[in-house]
Write a structure and sequence with these properties.
- The complex is a heterodimer of chains A (about 170) and B (about 600).
- Chain A is α+β, with helices and mostly antiparallel strands and about 170 residues long.
- Chain A has two domains: about 60 residues; about 90 residues, Glutaredoxin (3-Layer(aba) Sandwich), CATH 3.40.30.10.
- Chain A is built from seven helices and four strands; from the N terminus they run ααααβααβββα.
- In chain A, strand 3 and strand 4 form a beta hairpin.
- The longest helix of chain A is centred in the last third of the chain and has 23 residues.
- Chain B has about 600 residues and is of the alpha/beta class.
- Chain B is about 35% helix and about 15% strand.
- Chain B contains 19 helices and 17 strands.
- In chain B, helix 9 packs across helix 11 and helix 9 packs across helix 15.
- The chains are: A alpha+beta (about 170), B alpha/beta (about 600).
């Protein structure tokens, strides 16, 4: 079992790796990435901890964390769906896909479903324009999407999650 | 770097120093390029683009505040296209700005308004998207209204560079950028020290003080209370600027007369309680000098400074003088000593304070400063608010004269007067400590080493066999630097004066806004305000706190002696460590 205290000292250790580097402050983004990797999102306690450890004011850390869309400031679901809203995907109907997801899951962009399963995000170009429109579920790209295909995928994930839950109960 | 280089401005040849920006070079040649985000005391942001000029060979107009001047540069400052481009930039800012100038706190004294006027914007062509954010009124002192923010970033830079508080940052991006404390926490829960300097540097009304004028007008309508005011030294040195006077007029009798016309029964002088502070503080210092308590002793008059030390330097709390600020001492005496004299219940007294300070609003609400369960100062208004009240009550301020502060808490020495300028508390304390220590009178009482606007000032004062090493800092950033020195060299000083605002109280967060011919934090203006106080001091026959006959009387009649049991109970307090979000631990990176 990993405790909060372990997490804290692991993060401090991670920061210490950079302490001797030039422009130590500039590793803030790497540190925030690390927090998100471990936690799923960048939480306030971690930002306060980073402020103390790196000597950067919390207000500035919060500014960096909110500047980049990649950082989640709220807890996220098990599956993060990022719909690409880059130019190519947009003209190929990314909006309709996003709307479909919002309709099925009953959430807005940036929100997480009540069961903690899905988070919907918008991405600016995932670099896969040839397959537009694309979306990404937990770092895996899915190309040539349609609202129908999207709905089927979500259904499948939900079914599997339910299966796992039932198995877990047995 | 200081060699002279030839440049051309609008076709004319000049020689300017190299190693400066185009804006500075042009300033020296008599061209004042319009500007918004630029401030000479802050780092260069280059955010607003108002200060553009044309430089031959460049594809785009350059922001003169950030572009370095170089040899043979050909600059155009004034052409039809350039004027149009600057006007467009300001217009685009206005398009997103609320159009409520006539009901705005900064109406008539707003830099954006002035800029729009100077750019010749007489007609609006576009209707931009408006910001719709909640106004943060959680702080006792400072109100943050992001809807009026033009994102010039002066407040962010000031809060980090000059005050080293770092309460503010930019969150989110692009049009959605908002200046806010960490985690968008309410101001009251942030590291904000309530110094109010963000208000002074803001070009618009994105930061203003918590306005208590309506509340005070209502309190003044209550027929059942005795209404008592106190006025800080620096208010008299600056309020004239709110009535279009040049800085540097001392206007105490105008203030007293106006307050009487507003309905106050007694107007007391915070300078009297400044004298009292000196009696207590100098005695406390001498006790510590004898070995009873840690040195260096650090002054405790500045409310923003007190919150700063509680948050960022709790290890120095034992060094802080236990004296309450002059405002709180006066409030306490009004609700005890004077209430007893009047035979009136403290609850039936209105104790109002007029301060140069926004942090005093926060201080007055501190629970540990309450007297017998109620606040010693019921309401605090800034110099600006006082000027508004006088104007809206229809009082002819400039001609309201001939009144003096009331007895028994109105007579003050010159030492109490100079409290308002950086170094003044130290100077006043030494005038009295010298006497208390040696029994002799310090003759050369103007301590010029402690005057002026140098960030950190040091001096040595010989009292008989003893040499006292003192230091003075103003502005929280300088104060932080000074404390870092003390950390490394704890025995360096015996006594330290710290004021939270640049220039001391005369540069407080509640002082009149910079006028059209000035800029916020302008040193000239601060020096003139300080000179108004030093001038008052010079004119007084009583210039040492212990010579003030009313101070002598209050000790004889009521308090006994400095540091007596009653003095301790009424005039002293204590401080506690505070840990809101957003603190950086100084020891982490060095």
């Amino acid at each position: 079992m990993i405790t909060e205290k372990d997490k804290k000292s692991a993060l401090l250790e991670f920061i210490d790796n950079y302490r001797e580097k030039d422009n130590f402050e500039s590793y803030l983004i790497a540190v925030l990435h690390r927090v998100q990797e471990v936690n799923g999102y960048v939480d306030e306690a971690s930002m306060d901890l980073i402020a103390h450890a790196m000597g950067i004011p919390t207000a500035r850390i919060y500014g960096v964390a909110t500047f980049y869309h990649f950082f989640n400031l709220k807890p996220v679901g098990k599956y993060i769906i990022s719909v690409c809203m880059g130019t190519a995907c947009f003209v190929k109907g990314a909006n309709a896909i996003a709307d479909k997801i919002k309709e099925i899951l009953n959430i807005e962009t940036g929100e997480t479903t009540k069961d903690g399963l899905f988070t919907l995000q918008e991405a600016r170009c995932l670099g896969a324009c040839g397959q537009a429109p694309v979306l990404m579920i937990n770092n895996k790209i899915h190309g040539r999407m349609t609202p129908k295909k999207t709905a089927d995928m979500i259904k499948k994930i939900k079914r599997n999650a339910l299966k796992q839950k039932v198995q877990g109960q047995r | 770097m200081d060699n002279m280089i030839p440049i051309k401005v609008n076709g004319k040849e000049y020689r300017v120093k190299s190693g400066q920006t185009v804006m500075h070079a042009l300033d020296g040649l008599g061209y004042k390029i319009p500007r918004l985000c630029y401030h000479p005391k802050l780092s260069i942001e280059g955010a607003c683009r108002v200060c553009i000029v044309e430089i031959k060979g460049l594809k785009n107009y350059a922001a003169s505040c950030s572009y370095p001047v170089s040899a043979n540069m050909e600059i155009t400052t004034n052409s039809r296209e350039l004027r149009q481009a600057r006007r467009d930039i300001v217009e685009l800012i206005l398009d997103n700005h609320p159009q409520d100038c006539h009901t705005c706190d900064r109406d008539g004294i707003c830099e954006l308004q002035r800029l729009a006027y100077a750019m010749g914007i007489r007609k609006r062509y576009f209707e931009g998207e408006r910001k719709q954010y909640a106004i943060d009124t959680s702080s006792a002192s400072v109100v943050r209204d992001p809807n009026k923010c033009v994102l010039c970033g002066r407040c962010v830079r000031l809060c980090s560079e000059i005050q080293k508080v770092n309460a503010l940052g930019y969150a989110h991006r692009g049009f959605k950028t908002v200046v806010m404390p960490a985690f968008n926490k309410p101001f009251s829960e942030s590291v904000c020290t309530t110094c109010g300097q963000c208000i002074n540097v803001c070009p618009t009304a994105a930061f203003v003080e918590k306005n208590n004028t309506r509340e005070l007008f209502e309190m003044l309508d209550d027929p059942d209370t005795v209404k008592i005011a106190q006025v800080a030294p620096s208010v008299r040195a600056a309020i004239g600027e709110s009535f279009n006077l040049e800085p540097g007029h001392a206007m105490h009798s105008e203030i007293v007369a106006s307050l009487k016309k507003l309905g106050f029964d007694y107007v007391f002088d915070t300078q009297f309680s400044a004298d009292l502070t000196i009696m207590e503080e100098a005695s406390e210092f001498l006790e510590r000098l004898e070995g009873n308590g840690p040195l260096p002793m650090i002054t405790s008059c500045s409310s923003a400074w007190m919150k700063y030390v509680e948050q960022f330097y709790p290890e120095f709390i034992p060094n802080i003088s236990s004296c309450k600020s002059p405002m709180s001492m006066m409030g306490t005496l009004v609700k005890t000593y004077f209430a007893e004299k009047l035979k009136v219940k403290p609850a039936n007294i209105l104790s109002a304070a007029f301060m140069c300070c926004t942090a005093k609003k926060y201080e007055a609400a501190r629970p540990e400063l309450a007297v017998n369960g109620s606040r010693s100062v019921d309401i605090v208004l800034t110099t600006r608010e006082l000027a508004w009240m006088i104007k809206s009550a229809g009082i002819d301020f400039l001609n309201a004269k001939g009144e003096d502060f009331d007895a028994p808490l109105g007579l003050s020495s010159g030492a109490g007067t100079i409290f308002g300028a950086t170094g003044g508390v130290m100077e006043a304390a030494i005038r009295t400590a010298y006497f208390l220590y040696s029994g002799e009178t310090l003759l050369d009482i103007e301590l010029n080493e402690l005057r002026g606007l140098k960030g950190i000032k040091e001096s040595r004062i010989k009292i008989h066999d003893k040499e006292i090493r003192v230091a003075v800092a103003h502005g929280l950033g300088n104060s932080s630097d000074l404390l870092e020195t003390v950390k490394k060299d704890p025995g360096r000083y015996h006594f330290i004066e710290i004021m939270g605002c640049p220039g001391g109280c005369i540069g407080g967060g509640g002082q009149p806004y910079a006028t059209a011919n000035s800029i916020p934090l302008d040193e000239d203006c601060l020096l003139k305000r300080a000179e108004a106080l030093y001038g008052l001091d010079r004119k007084k026959t009583i210039r040492r706190s212990h010579d003030n006959p009313d101070i002598q009387r209050i000790y004889k009649e009521y308090l006994g002696r400095p540091l007596s049991k009653l003095s301790h109970q009424l005039l002293h307090t204590h401080y506690k460590e505070k840990t809101p979000h957003g603190i950086i631990w100084k020891g982490a990176v060095e």
